[in-house]
Amino acid sequence: MARSKPRRATGKWILALVLAAGVGIGLAWIAAALGPARPGDRSGVIFEVRPGDGLAAISARLARSKLVRSPLVFHAVSRILAEPIRAGWYDLRHSMNALQVLVTLHQAPSAQRLTIPEGYSIQQIADLTAKLGISSAADVESAAASPAPYLQRFPWLSILPEGASLEGFLFPDTYFLPAHQIPARLLVTMMLARFGQVVWPKLENRTGPLGPFQVITLASIVEREAKRESERPVIAGVFLSRLRLGMPLGSDPTVEYALGLHEDPAHPLTLADVRVASPYNTYRYRGLPPGPIANPGMACIEATLHPARTPYLYFVARGDGTHKFSRSYRQQLAAERKYQP
C-alpha cells in the first residue's frame, strides 16, 4: 500500500502536464489565429460592411479577403466586445493582426451618405462630390481617367480597351463616407468594388455577340434613353436588333455625350449637333460607340443582358417619360410628327 501513493502522485503530475500542454497548445493556436493573415504585406484593402451584415458574415468575408486568419476566432473575440460594427467602408491592411482589424472596425466609419444616381457620367459624379465637399471635381475626374492604378486589385478591369476611362464602371449606389474630404482614388475604389461585387459575377462568364465591355456600353445608352422600367428591355431589344442589322443606333444621348451637354425640352439637339464628327455620334457612325456614355444601374444592365424580343426598330419620346415604338421608318416618321412637331 505504501508504494501506491507515489504512483498516484505520478499520475496526477502526468495529467497536470497533459492539461497544461493542451492549454498551452490551445493558447498558441489562438495566438496564431489572431496574428496577421499576411505578415509583412502592407497593401491596403477597402473593406465594406454592408447595412444588415451580421458578425458571422463580416468574419467570413474578412477571411476571404485575407484580412484575418480564422473567421471563427475573430467572430468569438468580436462577441466578447458585444458592440455592433457599423455599415461603411474601412481602410484595412493585410499586415494587421485580428485585434487591430477589430479596433478599426469599431471606429465610426461614416458620417454622411453619397448617393450616385443611375446614369450619371464621370463628370456628373465629379461635380456632385465637389458640391458635397467630398472631393474636388478635378481629382475625381483624374482618378477615374484610367483603369491602370486599379488593375492589381480589380483584374476584371483588363476588359477595358487601351486608352479607356472608367466610364461605365463606377457603380451608382449609396455609399457611406466620413464627414471630411476623402482621396478621390479611395472614392473611385469604392465604386469599382461595388461593381465587382454586384455586376461582374453576371458578366465574367458572358457568352454571346456582346462581350462584357460592350454590354456595359449598350447598357449605358439604355440607361440614358429609358425613363420607365417596363421599357428598358424593349429599348435594349431595339438597339440589339439595329446592331444585328447593321443599322446606326441613332441615339441622342450619345451625341450629347460627344458634345458634353444634356438635352432638355428647352434646348433640343439640332441638325448640326447630330452631324458632329465624333465616334460617339451613333447617327453618323454604325455600331456601338467606343465606350460607355454613363454609369448604368443594375436594372439597365439586366435589361441589356435579357432584352425583350421585339419587332420594333424605332422609338420616339412621347414627352411623358414613355416612348412610341414603331416597326417601320414610315411609322417612325408619323410618330415623330405627332410627338415631336
- The radius of gyration computed from the alpha-carbon positions, rounded to a whole number of angstroms, is 28 Å
Instruction: Indicate the percent of residues in helices.
Output: 40-55%
Order of helices and strands: HEHHEHEHHEHHHHHHEEH
- The span between the termini is 117 Å
Discrete helix count: 13
What summary fits the major beta sheet? 2 strands, antiparallel
What's the pLDDT, averaged over the residues?
Answer: 85
- Give me the side-by-side strand order of the main sheet: 1-2
Please give the oligomerization state of what you see.
Answer: single chain
Helix- and strand-based class? mainly alpha
Number of strands: 6
What count of domains describes the coordinates? 3
Percentage beta strand = 5-15%
Low-confidence stretches: 20-24
What is the 3D form? elongated
What labels would you give this structure?
single chain, 341 residues, mainly alpha, Dna Ligase, domain 1, two-stranded antiparallel ribbon
Structure description:
- By secondary structure, the chain is mostly helical.
- It has 3 domains: 44-105, Endolytic murein transglycosylase (Dna Ligase, domain 1), CATH 3.30.1490; 112-198, no CATH class; 207-310, no CATH class.
- Helices cover 44% and strands 8% of the residues.
- The protein is built from 13 helices and 6 strands.
- The strands form 3 sheets. A two-stranded antiparallel sheet has the order 1-2.
- β5 and β6 form a beta hairpin.
- The longest helix has 30 residues, at 4-33.
- It is elongated and about 100 Å long.
- The chain starts with a helix and ends with a helix.
- Residues 20-24 have low confidence and may be disordered.
